[in-house]
Write a structure and sequence with these properties.
The complex is a heterodimer of chains A (44) and B (111). In chain A, 23% of the residues lie in helices and 34% in strands. By secondary structure, chain A is of the alpha+beta class. The relative contact order of chain B is 0.17. Classes of the chains: A alpha+beta (44), B mainly alpha (111).
């Protein structure tokens, strides 16, 4: 496993019909990144 | 990308609290063309010229959650649980190729 995400500050733009913000946040936090903004957008 | 998100990202990128080297943007859009437009927005500025990032090239490194680069850095079980189903359905190599190309363009413009 690479550790390049460790210490990064992550801005997350999830999508309601794709991968949502909280799911991305869990992955990035588990990789050692800090989530500084996360949103799930909805395109209709 | 909606104008509210653009405004938040602009504020974060321009604040003194974060170095641009430590910030990354990670997208989750299922539609690759839509994801590319969002990626362009946080690197070269809002292409539709409607949001706060119109004409503002932040140059932030942008990734897609389904890219191999991101997957390699996330513990396998966590990735599977949260993203696995999307990773199975998408052409992750193609997504990686397109996002790498955008990041390369950012580097070229910075140089």
């Amino acid at each position: 496993m690479d550790d390049w995400l460790k210490g990064k500050s992550a801005i997350i733009i999830g999508e309601r019909d794709g991968v949502q913000g909280p799911a991305i946040a869990k992955c990035l936090e588990a990789a050692g990144a800090k989530v500084i903004y996360a949103v799930t957008e909805c395109f209709v | 990308m909606d104008p509210e998100s653009q405004g938040h990202i602009k504020k974060i990128a321009e604040s003194n609290g974060f170095s641009k080297d430590e910030i990354i943007v990670v997208l989750g859009a299922s539609d690759i063309e839509g994801a590319e437009i969002s990626a362009e927005t946080v690197t070269f500025g809002d292409p539709s010229f409607t949001g706060p990032l119109a004409g503002v090239p932040l140059g932030l490194p942008v990734y897609h959650i389904l890219e191999p680069e991101i997957r390699r850095a996330v513990p396998e079980a966590i990735y599977e649980e949260n993203v696995g189903i999307w990773a199975m359905a998408a052409d992750t190599e193609e997504i990686g190729k397109r996002f790498r190309a955008i990041r390369e363009r950012v580097k070229t413009q910075k140089a």
